[in-house]
Records
---
Amino acid sequence: MARCTFLGLGVMGYPMAGHLAGAGHDVVVWNRTAAKMEQWAAEHGGVSAPSVEAAVADADFVFACLGDDPDVRSVAEKAIPAMKPGAVLVDHTTASAELARELDQAARDAGIGFLDAPVSGGQAGAENGQLTIMCGGEADTFARAEPVMDAYAKASSLIGPAGAGQLCKMVNQICIAGIVQGLSEGLHFAKRSGLDPALVIGAISKGAAQSWQMENRWQTMVKDEFDFGFAIDWMRKDLRITLEEARRNGARLPVAALVDQFYADVQAMGGNRWDTSSLIARLERDL
Amino acid sequence: MARCTFLGLGVMGYPMAGHLAGAGHDVVVWNRTAAKMEQWAAEHGGVSAPSVEAAVADADFVFACLGDDPDVRSVAEKAIPAMKPGAVLVDHTTASAELARELDQAARDAGIGFLDAPVSGGQAGAENGQLTIMCGGEADTFARAEPVMDAYAKASSLIGPAGAGQLCKMVNQICIAGIVQGLSEGLHFAKRSGLDPALVIGAISKGAAQSWQMENRWQTMVKDEFDFGFAIDWMRKDLRITLEEARRNGARLPVAALVDQFYADVQAMGGNRWDTSSLIARLERDL
Amino acid sequence: MARCTFLGLGVMGYPMAGHLAGAGHDVVVWNRTAAKMEQWAAEHGGVSAPSVEAAVADADFVFACLGDDPDVRSVAEKAIPAMKPGAVLVDHTTASAELARELDQAARDAGIGFLDAPVSGGQAGAENGQLTIMCGGEADTFARAEPVMDAYAKASSLIGPAGAGQLCKMVNQICIAGIVQGLSEGLHFAKRSGLDPALVIGAISKGAAQSWQMENRWQTMVKDEFDFGFAIDWMRKDLRITLEEARRNGARLPVAALVDQFYADVQAMGGNRWDTSSLIARLERDL
Amino acid sequence: MARCTFLGLGVMGYPMAGHLAGAGHDVVVWNRTAAKMEQWAAEHGGVSAPSVEAAVADADFVFACLGDDPDVRSVAEKAIPAMKPGAVLVDHTTASAELARELDQAARDAGIGFLDAPVSGGQAGAENGQLTIMCGGEADTFARAEPVMDAYAKASSLIGPAGAGQLCKMVNQICIAGIVQGLSEGLHFAKRSGLDPALVIGAISKGAAQSWQMENRWQTMVKDEFDFGFAIDWMRKDLRITLEEARRNGARLPVAALVDQFYADVQAMGGNRWDTSSLIARLERDL
Ligand SMILES: NC(=O)C1=CN([C@@H]2O[C@H](COP(=O)(O)OP(=O)(O)OC[C@H]3O[C@@H](n4cnc5c(N)ncnc54)[C@H](OP(=O)(O)O)[C@@H]3O)[C@@H](O)[C@H]2O)C=CC1
Ligand SMILES: NC(=O)C1=CN([C@@H]2O[C@H](COP(=O)(O)OP(=O)(O)OC[C@H]3O[C@@H](n4cnc5c(N)ncnc54)[C@H](OP(=O)(O)O)[C@@H]3O)[C@@H](O)[C@H]2O)C=CC1
Ligand SMILES: NC(=O)C1=CN([C@@H]2O[C@H](COP(=O)(O)OP(=O)(O)OC[C@H]3O[C@@H](n4cnc5c(N)ncnc54)[C@H](OP(=O)(O)O)[C@@H]3O)[C@@H](O)[C@H]2O)C=CC1
C-alpha cells in the first residue's frame, strides 16, 4: 500500500480520493476550501492537511484534480518543491499539453516523476471507480502509478511523453463536439418531422449512426433535461485549450471551433452548468 | 413463399434480390441495363423481365432499389398501373419523403399497398442480408412485407406513415455527418500532435467519444484508404434531400449543411466514389 | 415608345411597371390577384388584362417579376405561345439559371427573344427607378431591351448567355451572406464589449471593413429594427437556388450554406419578413 | 514640435516614424534588430538609441508598433519606468484589450499617459500617412497625442477607455473575416459558373454586395495573387485575440471562428505571409 496525497476534492477528486482510501492506501487530502477536506476526512477516516506543502511532504504519490491551467500551476508550484525525491506527481486535471511539459520539466529538476493523466468517464465514472485515464510521461513512472490509479480506473494507458495524455483527451473532446452536434441536429429534425424519437433511435442505434452519446443521451435530450453530466463551462475550457494547441500544431478544426461557439449560445441561455448534450437546446428552445 | 419482383440490381439491389431467391421466394428481376439482370438470372436461377410492366404483373411484392427521386418516379409510373390489386410496392431507395407521399397516394388510387423503406448497413449489409430497414406506411402493409424483407434484414421497423422511413434515414445521415467530421478532426489533430492513433483510439473508444464510425473506420482513415463503403456522391444526394426537407419542416442543420460543403471539397479532390469517412482527406492531403 | 406588358405587380413589379408608364410607354398589366392590377391601372392610367395571354398578345416587350421558379414557369407557359414573333420576354424574377435556359429555349422555339434579368436595389430601387439589372441572353436582345428597362434602372449589364443574369445575382447573394453575418458578429461583439457602436462605425467604415451593408444597415441593426427591406424568406429562396446551382457547378460555399441555416434560426424567431440584416437578432435577442 | 520616440521599425513602424520626422518632430528610434534603426536614422536623419530605456528617457511621446502581446509587454516593462512623468505612451500594436488595461494601470502608477491605438490601413496606409487610428484611453491624453499622430493618420478617434481601441480593431477584423470569405465564395462560384468576373463585379459592386474588399481585392483574388497586403499570420493573431476576448464578454462569433480555421487551411498551403484575401485559394487551388 502506498502513501498517497490527493489535492482538489471537487466533483471528481472527492470520490477518486475516496477510492484510494477504500483500496487501503494511506491518504492525505488537501482542498482550497477547507470544509470539503474535513467532510472527506470524516467520511473516509483519512487525514486532511493544512497546506499543500504539508499534504505532500511524505507522499509516494501525489494526485491532483483541479480546474484549469492557472489553478494547477499555482498548486504545483507549492507541491513540487515540497515532495520527496523519487515521489510521483500525477495531474488528473484536464489542462494544456504545454503546462504538462512545463510541470514535467519542473518535476525532473526536483528529482520526482510526473504524469499528465486527464480522465474520462465523468462524475459517474469517478464515483464508480470506472474512469479511463490517458497518460503522458515516462514508462517507468506510469508503471509505478498505474496500480495505484487502478483504485478508480477501469483502464489506464500511456499514450506518449509528457503532454500526450492531455493531447489524447483533446482528441476525445473534438470527437464529442461533432457527435453531439450531429445528434442534436438529428433529434431536432426528427421532432420537427413529427417522428417518434424512440422509434427512430430504435431503428438507427445499431448501425453507422450509433454513438455512446446516442445511446446514453438521446432520452434526456428529447426531454430537454440537462441538469447533470459534464458542464458546458468545462467543455468550453477543454475546447479552448484544444483550439489553442491546434494553433501550434497546425491542425484545422472547423466543426470543433463552430460547436465551441454554439456552446457559447447555450451559455447565453443560462446553460453554464448543463451537460454537453444541451447543444440541442439551441435548436429546440427558441421556438 | 411469395411472388416477388425486384427492380434495380445495383450494388444494393443485386444481393438483396439474391437473398429473396435464397429464401425460396419466386423472384422476377428487372434492371435498366439488361446485362446485370441476365447475370443475376444466371447466378440465381430466377427470371428476368423485358420491361417494368412485365416484371411486376404477377407479383405479390415489388421491391425497388434505384438511385434518386427522378429514377424512382419514372420506374414507379410504369410499375404501379401494372401491378395486381392488393399487391405491395416497397421502395428501398433513399429518396425524399415527398416522393414517398406521392407514391403512397398513387398506390392507394391503384388499390395497392406502399412502403418507403430505405435501408442502412451498406453494401456489406446487403450482401450478408443484415440490413436495417426503416419503413413508412400502413401497419398492415408493413406486417405483410416484413417477413419477406427478413430475407435481407436484421431488423425492420415501422416508424410512421408514408414518408417516415425516409425521414428516419435522414436522421441517420445527419448524425453521421457530425460524427465523421468530428472523428476526422480528432484523428487529424492526433496525427498533427505526433500521437500514435492506435493508442489514442484504444484509450477513448470505450467512452463518451465512442461511435460506430470510430470503431469501424479509424484504421482506414488513418491509412488514407477510402476506396470502399458508402460513396460521397450518394451521401451528398442524401444530404441534399435532407436539407430540402429541413426547409419544409423548419429544422436547422448548421453542421450538416457545412459538412455537405466539405464533402464537395472531397469531390473536388476526385473523391466522388470514396467512402464517407474520407472527410479526413480534406485535412490530411493538402499539406 | 414601346408597347410593354408587365406580369406580376408585387412589391417590385408594381413600381417598375409604373416607371414604364411614366417614361411614356404603352403599358398593359396583369396580376394574379386582380385587385392589384386594377389599383395600378387606376393609378397610372394604364390597361389591365383579364389573362396572361390577353396581356401579352400585342406587346413588343413582356416583363415579368414573380416569385420563384414554379411561378415563372406557370406564367411563361401561357405567355410565350401568346407573344408576337420578334417580341422580347424579360424575366426580372430571381430564379434558377436552369429555368432561364429552359425559357430561353422555349422562346427561341417560339421565335421570340428572352433575357433573364434579375435585379438588385430592393424595394427602394424599384420605387426610385434605380435598380441594377444583371442580364443573361443574346447581345441584340439586350440592346433592344436596355433602353426600355432604363425607365427603372440605374445600370443594366449583359453578363453572358441565358442564365448568366441569374448566376450573377447568385454571386451577389453569396457575398451578402458573408458580409451581413460578419457585420452582425462585429456589432454584437461591440455591444458585448460596451463600445458605442456609432463611434466604432465612425472609425472603421472608411477602411478594409467597409461595406454597403455597414453603411446602410448598422443603425437599424443596432436598434433591432428589421421591419423593412429584403425579406428573409426571399433570401432563403435565393440561397436555396444558389446552393442547388453549386451542386451542379462544383462550387464550395461553406459560409453561404451556414448562413442559410442561421437565416432559418431567424425564421424560427418569427422573422420571415424581416430584412436580411436581422441575422444579428440571433445573437442579440436570446439573452 | 514634440520630442518623439518610436519603438519597433517593422513594416508599419518604419514609415510611421518617418512621417513623424517629416512633420518636423524630433524623433528617436529603437528597434530590436539594430540594422533597421541604423538604416532609418541614415534615411531620415534621426537618432537611434542603444536601448529602450535610453530611447524613451527624454520623450514627450513614445510610440510603439510591435508584434503581439508578449512583445509589447517585454518592451513596455522597460519603457514605462524610464519615461518622464507626464509623457504619453501610445501603443499602435494590435494586441489584447487586457494588455491595454494592464499597461494603462502601469502607466498611471508611473504618472504617464497611455493610449491603446491600433491602426488600420495597412502598409500602404502607413507609407502614405493615411492610417485610421482607433484609440482607448483618457480624453486629455488623446487630445495631446492626436495632433502628433496626424503625421501618419487620416483619422484618429477615441472610442472609449483603455482597451477600447483594441476592441474596436477586433470589430474591424470580425467584419473583414465575413466579408472576405463571402467574397471568396462569390468569386469562386462566378468562376465555376463560367462568368467573366469583371462583368460580375461591374454589375454588383455598387449595391448591397459592395465592400472595400470587393473593390480593392477582386482583381488579385481572381488572378490568384496574394504576395502583398495584410499577412494571414497577423490575421490569425488578431482573430485569436478576438476569440479570446469573446470568451470573456460572451459574444458568439461562429463565422469568425470558422474563417479562422479556414485561414489555418491557407497556412497549411504555405500562405503564412499571403494577404487575407487568399481565403479564395482554399477554394480555387485544390482542383
Ligand atoms: N466533472 C466531470 O465530469 C469531469 C471533469 N474533468 C476535469 O476534471 C477537473 C476537475 O473537475 P471537477 O472535479 O468537476 O471540478 P470542481 O469544480 O468540482 O472541482 C475543482 C477542484 O479544484 C479546486 N481548485 C480550483 N481552482 C483552484 C485553485 N486555484 N487553487 C486550489 N484549488 C483549486 C477546487 O477547490 P475548491 O473546493 O476550493 O473550489 C476543487 O477542489 C477539471 O479539469 C475538469 O475539466 C474531467 C472529466 C470529467
Ligand atoms: N423585394 C425585394 O426587395 C426584391 C425582390 N427581388 C425578387 O423579385 C421577385 C419579386 O419580389 P417581390 O415583388 O418582392 O414579391 P411579391 O411577393 O411582392 O410579389 C410577387 C408577385 O408575383 C406574383 N405571383 C407569385 N406567384 C405567382 C403565380 N404562381 N402565378 C402568378 N403570379 C404569381 C404575385 O401575384 P399576387 O399579387 O397574386 O400574389 C405578385 O404579383 C422575387 O423573385 C424576389 O426574390 C429581387 C430584388 C429585391
Ligand atoms: N502590416 C500591416 O499591414 C498591419 C499591421 N498591423 C499590426 O501592427 C503590428 C506591427 O506589424 P508589422 O509592422 O507589419 O510587423 P513587422 O513584423 O514588420 O514588425 C514588427 C516589429 O516589432 C518588433 N518586435 C517584435 N517582437 C519584438 C520583441 N519581442 N521585442 C522587441 N521588438 C519586437 C520587430 O523588431 P525586429 O525588427 O527586431 O524583428 C519589428 O520592429 C502588428 O501588431 C500588426 O498586427 C496593423 C495593421 C496593418
Note: The first strand of chain A starts at residue 3 and ends at 7.
---
Amino acid sequence: MSSDKGQTEVRRVGIAGFGTVGQSVARLLCSGRYPNLLLTHIYNRNIQAKKVDWVPRRVVWTDRVEDVLDIGVDIFVELIGGLSPAKEWIEAAIIGGKSVVTANKQVIAKHGAELCTLVRQGGTALGFEAAVGGGIPMVRGIQQGLGSDHLIELVGVLNGTCNFIFDRMESAAVTMEEAVQEAQALGYAEADPSDDLEGLDAQAKIAILSAVGLRRPLTPTDIPTRTIKSVGQMEFRQADKLNYVIRQVSRVAVDNAQGDQVQALVTPALVPKSSRLGQVHGAENIIITRGKWGGESAFVGLGAGGEPTAIAVVGDLLSIAEDTGTSTAMRFPVSESTSRVSKECISRHYLRTPTVLSHGMNSVPDRLKRNGVEVEKTWQESQNSGQSFTLVLTGLASFSVIQETCGEVERDLKDGDQCVWLPILDESPKEH
Amino acid sequence: MSSDKGQTEVRRVGIAGFGTVGQSVARLLCSGRYPNLLLTHIYNRNIQAKKVDWVPRRVVWTDRVEDVLDIGVDIFVELIGGLSPAKEWIEAAIIGGKSVVTANKQVIAKHGAELCTLVRQGGTALGFEAAVGGGIPMVRGIQQGLGSDHLIELVGVLNGTCNFIFDRMESAAVTMEEAVQEAQALGYAEADPSDDLEGLDAQAKIAILSAVGLRRPLTPTDIPTRTIKSVGQMEFRQADKLNYVIRQVSRVAVDNAQGDQVQALVTPALVPKSSRLGQVHGAENIIITRGKWGGESAFVGLGAGGEPTAIAVVGDLLSIAEDTGTSTAMRFPVSESTSRVSKECISRHYLRTPTVLSHGMNSVPDRLKRNGVEVEKTWQESQNSGQSFTLVLTGLASFSVIQETCGEVERDLKDGDQCVWLPILDESPKEH
C-alpha cells in the first residue's frame, strides 16, 4: 500500500452515449464537485444535434467512438445500452488499459464474468453499480458491505417502470395501457416498453445480483420470467380485499435441497401490504438480503431516472479515481459454468379465469384438485361488462403444477381468454 | 494500479476484546470462508477464563495487549469499547504500521478525524463500518455508494436497544422497566443501559454519519440529546390513536438558512405508523438519506447483536485484505473545527403534564399560547391510578420554545412530576 493513495490525481473521463443518463453524468462532472474527475470526451451518434452549451469548451464532441477509446481518456463510461456494440467497446477500452464504468445490465448479466477476467488481467477497474437499482448502492452494499456474510436469498423490486405502472393501477385505478402511457410521458418507460413489461430488464438485474451476492452466476435466460401484461384491475381489487398488493418480484435463493442449484424467478406476485416489498412505491426499487449471520437487510431508493443513475456512475468513477474501485471486478465470480436454475418454487397462488366452462367440463378448482393442489377458497366476480370470472386461492403448490394446470384450462377457453395466475409471496421466515 | 491486487496475500489478524462481538468475529474467521484472513492473536483481560476450544491451536491467547500490537499482526481489531485505552491502542497500532478495524463509536465520533489523518500519513487503513448500524453497511453505503451525491439530510433509528424497548412497550404494553429487563435478558442491553437510554450511543453514531455523509464533523456533545426514560405507556396509547408510533430518532441536516450550520438531534419522537421510521421493529436500525440528486434512499437491517456486528468487522477486514479498504479513512473529512449545531429545529409537538394546576395558575395551553405556540388540540386522560393528565398537540414550533415552556410548567409541578414532551416528526418533503 502506498501512502499517496486517495490524492487528487486527475482522471480523464470519456462518455459514450449522451441520453438521459449521459447528460446527468455530464452535469455532475461539470458541477465542480469532483476535482479529480475531468470530462474530456462525449460520444454520440449524430453528435451535432446533441451539443449543449453548459459543457466546458475543452470537451471534445465526437461521433467516432475511436476518439473516446483513444489514449486521451483514462476512464471509459459506456451508456449506449444494448449488447452490441457496447460489449465490444467495453472490451476495447479494457484492452487499451482503461478502466470502465457502465450502466449496461444486459452486457454485465451476459458477459460480466468474461469482462471481469479481462479487467483483472489488465489491472484496471470495471464498475457497474448503475446497472442495478439506479441510485441505490446495491452492488456495493451486497458485495462489499455484506461480502463477509453467507447470503442465502435476495428478493426485490428491481424494475421502476413496472412498479410505477402497478402503483398507478392500484392508486388511480387506471388500466395498464393508461399507466404505460403515463410512464412514457414522465420518461419512466421507453417508446417500446417490452423489456420492462416482459421482465427482461429485471431478469438481467437479478442475474447480476445472483453473481455478486450469492456468487452463483446464472444465464439470464434460464431464469423463469413472466410478463406483467396479464395483470388487470380485477387483480388489484381482489388483492386489496385480501390485504395484498401486486409487485413485479425478482428473487434468487440458494436451494438447500439441491446442492448447487438456485431458485430464481421474475414474476408479478401478490405480496402483503405491510411487507417491505409491498411498501415500495412509484419508481422505487428495493433489494432485501437474507444472510446466515447478518439476518435480513434491505436497501431502498429510486431505481430509475437520469439523476439517481448518474449518482451510481459517478460513485464508481470516484472509487476508481481514489483507487478503491477494483473490488467490483475482483469479487465478480468467474467460473466456467453457470449455476442451474430450479423451476420448482413453492408458494400459494391466485388464479382467475372467465366463468365460461360448459356443463361436463372440468372446473378450475376440480382441475387443481386433480393435479394435487389444495384449493383454499374459490369465488365468482363480475366485471362492469357483465363478464363473470372464477377466482381461486390455492394452498402451497409448485410453480410447474400451476403452470401446467393453467395450460389445461386455457385449452378449454376461447381464443384471447386466459388464465391469469399470480403467485402469493408471503414473507419468508426471518433469520432472527 | 498493480495487477496482482485482490490476490490472496494472507493478513494476520489480532483481536483485542473477546466479548460478544469478538467471539462472533473469531467464529467467522475460523469458519474457513476467508482464506486471506488468518486469526493469530486474541487479547482479553483475565484471558485464561476466556479460552474456547473451537479456535485453532496456532492462535496466541494473551492478556498483554503488546503481543497484539507486535509485528506478528497485520490488522488490529479493537473491540474493547470505551474511549481509553481503546484510542491509545488504535494509535499505537497505526503508528506501528498496522491497519485497524474497530466497532468503537465513541472513539471514532470523538477522534475519527485525528485517527484518519494518522492513517493517511502512514498509508494503512482504518475501518469502522461496525461502529454504526451493526450489520447494515451504512458507512460504506453513504460514503462510497452515495459519495457522489450532495447529501442534505440523514435521519434514522440508530440504537437497537431503544428500538427493542419501544417495540415491546408498544406491542406487549409492558413498562419501560420490564422492557429494559427483557432487553438485558436477551443480551440487547448492558447491565447499565444508560448510554442507550440517554441517547449517548445514538449521539456518537449520528456524529459519525454527519462526518462521513454530510462531510460536517460534529462534536458529539454539541448534539441536543434527550433521554427516552420519560416516555410512558400513556404516550404509546395516545400515539396509537393519532396513527403514530414512538421511535428514538437521530437526525442531522444541512441548515439552509445558516450556511455552515447543521441541525442535529437525538430524541424520542412521534413518527407516522406508515413511515419508514415507523416500520422499523425490534432491534432493527435504519438510516434514510436525502440527496440533491439521488433523492431518498434507505438502508435497513439488524443494528445490534454479535453476529451482524461481526459481519461488519469482517467486511472491513476483507476490504483491507483486498486493498480496497483505505477509502473509509480517506473520505473522513479532516478539519480543524467542527460544524456548529443549530438547536432551532421546527416541528409539531406532543406534551403531557399532570392536571394539578390550581385556579389562577397558567394552564399548559395558556403558557404555550403566551410563548407564541399555536395549540392544535388539548384533551384530558386518566391513568388507572386515577391521576389525570392534560395532553396538548401544538402547531409548528421550535424545540427551544417548547423546552422553555416545559421548564416553566415544571416549576409549578410538585417534585418528581414532569412535563413529558415529544416532537412529532412527520416525513420531510421528498426530493422527488
Note: The first strand of chain B starts at residue 11 and ends at 16.
---
Amino acid sequence: MSHLHLIAFDADDTLWHNERLYLTAQNRFKTLLARYHSSEWIAERLDQTEMRNLPHFGYGIKSFALSMIETAVELTEGRITGQEIQILIDAAKEMLTAEVQLVERVPETLARLAEKYALMVITKGDLRDQELKIERSGLAQFFSHVEIVSDKKRANYSRVLQQHNLAPEHFAMVGNSLRSDILPVLELGATAIYIPHELTWAHEHADAPTAAPNFYEVAKFDDLPVLFAQLEQK
Amino acid sequence: MSHLHLIAFDADDTLWHNERLYLTAQNRFKTLLARYHSSEWIAERLDQTEMRNLPHFGYGIKSFALSMIETAVELTEGRITGQEIQILIDAAKEMLTAEVQLVERVPETLARLAEKYALMVITKGDLRDQELKIERSGLAQFFSHVEIVSDKKRANYSRVLQQHNLAPEHFAMVGNSLRSDILPVLELGATAIYIPHELTWAHEHADAPTAAPNFYEVAKFDDLPVLFAQLEQK
C-alpha cells in the first residue's frame, strides 16, 4: 500500500508550457538590439541583469520586463527609443495574457491521480500571474490547494508540509526543475519526481541526484499513474 | 468576555508607512516630465495607465514602475531617453530596498494585543516585496500567520477564515483602506477597525460605513487595546 497522501505539482513547464514565452520575448529583445550587439552578448547581459535584480524583484514576467528594459538602456548606452521600450512592455503584456498551453495529457492524468490522492500546486513567481494562469488553465478543479511562493527553498516546502500537517514520507513533488522542485524536496526526506521539459531556464539547472533513494524520473506527464502504482507496491 | 480570537492587520500604511514611497516616486516622475506637461496632467495619465494595467499587472512596486515607464513613453511621444527610463527603474529599486518605517507605537501595541489574541497579517501586493518588508520590519515575531493575497476581495477573506476554521464573529480586521480592509470584512459579518492614514491611495477610498454594527474607527494604532477591551465588555 502506498504511503503517499498528497502529490504536489510545479506549474510552469510541468502542467503548462512557460519557458517558450520567455524565449519568444528574448528573441524579440535580441532582434531589437541586433544593430548594437551580437545575439550572444545580448543574452549574456540580460541574464546578468536578471540575476542581479532577482533578490529584489523576485521571479516572474514583470521582473523579467524590468530587466529587459534596464539591459536595453545599458547596451544601447541610453540610445534606446521610447517606442522600442514600449515594444518591451507590450511583450510583457502579451506574455501575461497569453493563452495557457497545457503539457500533453495533463488533464486526463490529473483526473486519474485525483481518484487516489489529494493534489496541490506549488509554484513560484508572481502571485497575480500564477492565479490567472491556474484560472485560465481549467485545471483548478483537480487541486485541493494552491500555494504560490516567492521561492522554492527547503524552508518553504517545510512550511507547506507543516500547514497541511503532513510528514515528508506522505508527500511527493512533481516538477521539471531539479533545483526548485527536486533537490529541496529530497532534502526533506520526501519523494521527488522529475519530468524533464524540452526547455528549462539555465537558472533552474542542477545535477540529477540519480543515487537518491526517493528520486524518480519519468519522460512524460502521463507516465505518472504507472509510476505511482509501482510506488504503491514497494 | 470577548468573542474575538484572531485579529488580522493590513500592512502598508497600517503597520508601516508605504504611500509616501509612491508619492516620492511620483514627484520624481513629474519633475522628469515637467518640460512636457503640467503636474496635474502627468498625475492623471499615470493614474489611468495604472488602472488600465491593474487587471494584468496586479498591485505592487514593479507594476507601478512599468506603468510609470509606459506613461513616460506616451506623454513624451517616445522622446523619453534611455537615461530617463533608468531613473524610473532606479526609483523602483529604491522603493523596494527602502528602510521600513513603522507607524508610531506599532511594536508595543502588537506586543500587548498578542497577550490576548492570535495576530496575523493580511496584505496584498507583490509576494517577494511584502515578504521582505515583514522580515525587515522586525514584527514577524508577533504574527502566527502571514497571508499575502493578490487582491482583498470578500472571497479572499472568506478563504482565509475557512483555512483557519474561524467563524466571522471571531475575526477582526484592522486597516487603513475602507475599500480593501473594511467593507469586504463587514460583508462577511466580521468586525472591522478603520485607522485612517494621512496618505491613502485614491483607489482605496470608499465611504465609511458609519452605520454598520461591527464597524469601528480609531485615530491611532495604540488606541487599539482600549477599543478591544471595550469590545470585550459588550
Note: Residues 19-97 of chain A form a domain with the DNA polymerase; domain 1 fold (CATH 1.10.150.240).
